[in-house]
C-alpha cells in the first residue's frame, strides 16, 4: 500500500509538471490551435488519467475524507476535468453514441440585419450543421466611448488633437488661426432648400461627422465638415487635414430566437453578455460589411459540461477558502467562546 501511495504521489507530481508545460505551449500557439490541441486524443488520455489519479488519491489517502477542505478541492478538480471532457468534441460524439443527443460543440454564423439563419460553420467556412432553432438579427450597432477626438495636421507636419465636443476651441499657430467645433453629428445629412444647402442630424442612421470653423485675423471664417469615414480628406486649397475618430466600446446585436415559428427569446447581446437558449450560448464575436449591408458574426457554444465545470469551481473555491481561512476562523471562534465560558 505504501508503494502504491508513493506511486500515485509521483504520478500526480509528474502530471502537474506536464500540465504546466502544456499550458505554456498552448499560450503560444493561438486560441484555435490550442483548442484542437487540448481536445486531441493524446490529451484526452491525459485528462482521463488525471481524473483516475485524483479519484485514487481520495480512495488511498483516507485523511482526505476527514479534511473537508482537501476533499472539496480534489472533488472540484475532478468535476472540472470531467466537465471539460464532456464538452469537448469527443464528449459530444460520446453523447450522441450513448444517449442520442446530437449537439454542435461550437461554431459561428454571419447574419445580415433583418435576416435569419440556423447554419453553423467553422473558422474556415466549412458547414458544421444546423441549430434546432433559428436566430434572427433585428439590428446591429456599435457603441462608442464619448467624446471622440478630432486630429489635425498641417501641410508642413505640425499636428494637434482635441476632444470632439461642440463649442470646443483650439488656438493653432498664428498663421492657421483658431479652430472651433460648432456641431457634432451622429448621422450627417445635407439637403437643398431652394438654392441653399441645409445640414441636419437625421435619427436612425450612422454617418458621424463634425462641423468646424476656422477663424484667422482679417479673414472670413471658413467652415469645414470632417467625416469619420473619410479621415484625412483635404482639397488642394486646404492648409489643414483633419480626421474624426471614436474608440469602439461595445458591439451589440439585437437577436431574437425563433422556434416553431414563434419568437421564444430575445436579447441585445454583447461580447461578454450572451443569449442562452436550447442548450447553447450565443456570443457577439465580430462584425463586417459587404455588398448586402452590415452583418454580425455570432459565436454559438454548446453548454455541455458547463454545469459540472461550474460546480467544480464552487467546490474548489469553497475548499481553498475553508483550508486557508474558514478553519482558522472557526478555531478562533471556538477559543473565544471557551474563554467566555471560563470567565463566567
Distance N to C terminus: 51 Å
Rounded to the nearest angstrom, the radius of gyration is: 31 Å
- What are the secondary-structure elements, in order, as H or E? HHHHHHEEEEEEEEEEEEEEEEEH
Helical/strand content category: alpha+beta
Helix content: 25-40%
Describe the secondary-structure layout.
Elements: H1 2-26, H2 31-38, H3 41-60, H4 63-66, H5 68-87, H6 89-99, E1 106-112, E2 115-121, E3 127-144, E4 149-154, E5 159-163, E6 169-171, E7 178-185, E8 188-193, E9 196-201, E10 209-215, E11 222-227, E12 240-245, E13 248-259, E14 262-269, E15 275-277, E16 280-290, E17 293-302, H7 306-343
Helix pairs in contact: 1-3, 3-5, 5-7
Keywords:
344 residues; alpha+beta; Tick-borne Encephalitis virus Glycoprotein, domain 1; four-stranded antiparallel sheet
Please, could you describe this protein's structure?
The protein is elongated. The protein has 7 helices and 17 strands. The protein starts with a helix and ends with a helix. The strands form 5 sheets. It has a 4-stranded antiparallel sheet, with no helix packed on it. Strands 2-3-13-14 form a 4-stranded antiparallel sheet, with no helix packed on it. A 4-stranded antiparallel sheet has the order 6-7-10-11, with no helix packed on it. A hairpin with a 2-residue loop joins strand 16 and strand 17. The model has no long low-confidence stretch (mean pLDDT 88). The protein is an alpha+beta fold and 344 residues long. The longest helix is centred in the last third of the chain and has 38 residues, at 306-343. The chain has 3 domains: 2-97 and 305-343; 108-143 and 249-302, Tick-borne Encephalitis virus Glycoprotein, domain 1 (Sandwich), CATH 2.60.98; 146-246, no CATH class. The protein is 37% helix and 38% strand. The protein has helices at residues 2-26, 31-38, 41-60, 63-66, 68-87, 89-99, 306-343, and strands spanning 106-112, 115-121, 127-144, 149-154, 159-163, 169-171, 178-185, 188-193, 196-201, 209-215, 222-227, 240-245, 248-259, 262-269, 275-277, 280-290, 293-302.
Amino acid at each position: 500500500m505504501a508503494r502504491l501511495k508513493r506511486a500515485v504521489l509521483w504520478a500526480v507530481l509528474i502530471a502537474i509538471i506536464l500540465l504546466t508545460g502544456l499550458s505554456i505551449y498552448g499560450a503560444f500557439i493561438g486560441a484555435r490551435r490550442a483548442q484542437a490541441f487540448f481536445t486531441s486524443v493524446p490529451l484526452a488520455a491525459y485528462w482521463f488519467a488525471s481524473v483516475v489519479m485524483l479519484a485514487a488519491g481520495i480512495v488511498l489517502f483516507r485523511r482526505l475524507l476527514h479534511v473537508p477542505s482537501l476533499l472539496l478541492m480534489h472533488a472540484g478538480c475532478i468535476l472540472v476535468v470531467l466537465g471539460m471532457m464532456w464538452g469537448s468534441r469527443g464528449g459530444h460524439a460520446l453523447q450522441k453514441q450513448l444517449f442520442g443527443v446530437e449537439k454542435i460543440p461550437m461554431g459561428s454564423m454571419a447574419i445580415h440585419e433583418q435576416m435569419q439563419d440556423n447554419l453553423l460553420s467553422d473558422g474556415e467556412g466549412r458547414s458544421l450543421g444546423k441549430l434546432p432553432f433559428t436566430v434572427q438579427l433585428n439590428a446591429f450597432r456599435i457603441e462608442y466611448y464619448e467624446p471622440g477626438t478630432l486630429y489635425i495636421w498641417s501641410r508642413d507636419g505640425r499636428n494637434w488633437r482635441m476632444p470632439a465636443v461642440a463649442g470646443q476651441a483650439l488656438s493653432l499657430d498664428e498663421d492657421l488661426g483658431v479652430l472651433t467645433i460648432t456641431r457634432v453629428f451622429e448621422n450627417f445629412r445635407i439637403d437643398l432648400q431652394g438654392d441653399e444647402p441645409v445640414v441636419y442630424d437625421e435619427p436612425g442612421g450612422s454617418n458621424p461627422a463634425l462641423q468646424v470653423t476656422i477663424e484667422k485675423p482679417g479673414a472670413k471664417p471658413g467652415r469645414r465638415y470632417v467625416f469619420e469615414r473619410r479621415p484625412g480628406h483635404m482639397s488642394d486649397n486646404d492648409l489643414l487635414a483633419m480626421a474624426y475618430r471614436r474608440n469602439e466600446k461595445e458591439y451589440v446585436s439585437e437577436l431574437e430566437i425563433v422556434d416553431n415559428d414563434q419568437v421564444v427569446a430575445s436579447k441585445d447581446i454583447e461580447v461578454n453578455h450572451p443569449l442562452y437558449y436550447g442548450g447553447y450560448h450565443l456570443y457577439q464575436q465580430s462584425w463586417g460589411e459587404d455588398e448586402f449591408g452590415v452583418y454580425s458574426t455570432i459565436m454559438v457554444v454548446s453548454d455541455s459540461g458547463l454545469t459540472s465545470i461550474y460546480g467544480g469551481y464552487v467546490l474548489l473555491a469553497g475548499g481553498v477558502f475553508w483550508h486557508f481561512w474558514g478553519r482558522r476562523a472557526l478555531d478562533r471562534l471556538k477559543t473565544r467562546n471557551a474563554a467566555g465560558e471560563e470567565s463566567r
